[in-house]
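User: Need the bound-state model for manganese (II) ion:
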Amino acid sequence: MTMSLSTTSHGTTATSAAQQPDWQDGDLLDHVRRRLRDLPGLTTEDEVGELERALAGAARGEALVLQGGDCAERFHDAVPDRVRRKLDHLQGLASVLRAGTGLGVVPVGRMAGQYAKPRSDPYETLPDGRRVPSYRGDAVNDPAADPVLRAADPTRLVDAYDCSRAVLGAVRASWAGRQAGERVYTAHELLLLPYEESLVRTGKRGDYAASTHFGWIGARTSAPDGAHVGLAASVHNPVGVKIGPRTSPAHAVELVRRLNPDAVPGRLTFIVRMGAEQLDSALPPLVEAVAAGGIPVVWLSDPMHGNTYRAPGGAKTRSLSAMRAETEAFVRVLREHRQWPAGLHLELTPDPVTECVDVPETATGRLVFPHYRSVCDPRLNPAQAEQLVHAFLRLL
Ligand code: PEP
Ligand code: MN
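Assistant: Bound-state model below.
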């Protein structure tokens, strides 16, 4: 795990931060930080507040949430027609849930900033045996397996800002004529501290992350005393934390205490990603401990990240049957504890890709993946996403 010193918007601290790239040029990074601090915030405090109010409905069990988008967004997709396709896709899935339940559904895109990836292995071994730094998202390096292009380049943080702004422009254009409750909001993983800290802005209600509407903390950076949780605690946006099979009840309770001390409904979302096999044993004690504290939390199921495996040919994939099983177990456990299963967090694309598979893991031996385009994790294609959303709907 990469550790580094980090700087907060309020000054320099020596908090250790997990999953930070090994930036090649420290002076250039400082220059980029100053540049980002001088640029306008991308989101407004009013938008962030509207999303929090919409999520408050989900915290009270009166609305649903559908978060979705690419695992790793690409800079070259920051063009209006690509963004519109993604928005139409998310809106279509949200309408399935709306029509099926009569409830409000808040669509939230993994978009307009989902340019940074945590990696389990900082290096990737190429077929010829060479080792190159792993791809960490377009905000850090290039997916091409070339040692020069894989160096962490701070100027990419400015490109990430520009592309996020372009995507957000297309998102706002889609809001015309829609009520606040029917808009798609933006979200990404709060991972790269020099970027996120430089985009904290001070509004009427205090500091907020002006890089996005909703920011989440990944499973690898969720230490309650770590720099990422510290950043999320210092801003008033709605925030999420990925909850994995090794998150203990005490850890979850501490996250609630640090991230939602004022018990604001809609402020904190737990995105459960345990894996179909672990969820039944790992989730009940955690839900029980959080519910006992009485502080509202929005519970979402990410049935994807705990069910990733490599197919025999080497492709990273996930089977729909495992994802369905995790979603089912999630809804059952939440219901047993009288908590509201508020929705799904999915990696999906409007493109007809073949990245996830429709068959159980045991039957993937001879599979080929002719349209594998993701530079990171496997996404659901439109038919697969619809199947999963329908499966969730039937459980409600
Ligand atoms: C992701 O959402 O792409 C991700 C890396 O998830 P997690 O932190 O849950 O592994
Ligand atoms: Mn992913």
